Amino acid sequence: MKSGKEEFLEVLSKYQGIVYKVSLVYFKNKSDREDNFQEIIYQLWKSFPSIKNQDSIGSWIYAVSINTSISRVKKVSRIEYREAVPEIPDRSDLFDHISKNESLQLLLNAIHNLEDVDKSIMLLYLEEKSYDEIADIIGISKSNVGVRINRAKETLKQNVRIQSHGK
Question: Cβ distance 124 to 138 under 8 Å?
C-alpha cells in the first residue's frame, strides 16, 4: 500500500506539465514562474488528501493551478509559514524550450496580455479541453466559454500581428 506522499508524487509526476503551462501563461519572469510552480505544488499537496474522484484529477490540477496563479497575481507579498512539500521528481525545463521558440514566444506574449480568466480559458482550449470541461474548471457556462474563446482568438490575432510587425 502506497503512502499519501508516494501517491501524490506519482500524480505530480504524471501531471506536472499542467502546472508548468499554467505558470508559463501567468508569469513572464522565470523566477516568478518558479515561485508560482512551488506555490501550486504546495496547494495541491495541501488539498490532495481531500480529492475524492481520481477520474477527474487532471481537471482538479488545472483548477488548483489556475486559481493559485490568479490569487498569486493579485496577492500582495507577505511572509507565510509553509509546511514542507515533497521534492518534485525530474523537472524538465519547459520554460527554456518555449523561450527558444520564436513562434511560441509570440503566442505566449500575446496570451500574457489577456485578462486572467481568458488566459486560463485559452490555455485549456489549447490543451484541447472540451467547452464542458473548460466550463467546469473555470466555473462559467458553456456558452460563455464559447464567447470568450472567440473574443480571445481575435485579441490574440491582433496582438501577434502587432508583435510580429514590431520586429
Answer: yes
**166 with 95: CB under 8 angstroms?**
no
Domain range holding 114? Answer: 101-167
Q: Are 107 and 32 part of one and the same domain? A: no
Which among 48, 69, 92 is the end of a domain?
A: 92
Note the pLDDT tens digit of each residue in 86-135.
454 444 455 555 556 677 777 888 888 899 899 999 989 988 999 999 99
**Number of structural domains found in the chain:** 2
DSSP of 93-142, one letter per residue? -HHHHHHH-HHHHHHHHHHHTS-HHHHHHHHHHHTT--HHHHHHHHTS-H
pLDDT tens across 46-100, in order? 999 888 777 789 999 999 999 999 888 877 444 344 444 445 444 445 555 555 6
- pLDDT tens digits, residue range 12-31? 999 999 999 999 888 888 88
Q: Which of 108, 119, 101 is nearest to 159 (CA)?
A: 108
